[in-house]
Input
Amino acid sequence: MLFGEKIKLLRKGKGLTQSELAKTVGVTLRTVQNYETKNLFPKNQNVVTALCSALDTTPDYLISDNDIFINKAYEKGGTKEKQYAEKLVSEVTAMFAGGELSEEDRDDVMQAIQEAYWKAKKINNKYTPKKYRKNE
Output
C-alpha cells in the first residue's frame, strides 16, 4: 500500500475529512488531496510528525522505500516516470504475492530492482540526443 492510500485509510478510520486533517496538521486542503491522490509525501519532517500524531501511526509505516522510489522518479522525470515506477512496484509486489520470501528478502530484491532501474535510466540517457536531454 502506498503513502496516499495509507493516509486516506487512516484518515477515514479516524472519521476525519480531508479539510479536518489539513487543519490539524497545518497544511492546506490541496496538500492533503495531493498526498492522497498523487502519492506525494511531505519533505518537511515536522509535517510527517504532525500527520503521524493526527493519524496515530509512525513515519516508518507511512513512508516506505517504494514511496520514496516513486517520488524520486516523479521528481526526476515527471508524471510519465512516476507511472513507470508505480507499475514496476506493482508488478514486483504482485510477483511476490503469496510467496515464501521473508519481508527482509523482499525489501532486498525491491532495492536491487530499483537500483537497476536507475542504472538503466542513466545508461539510456547517453543515447538520447543532447537537445532532448534534461538536466544538461
Summary: The chain has a mean pLDDT of 83. The longest helix spans residues 65-95. The chain has two domains: 3-62, 65-132.
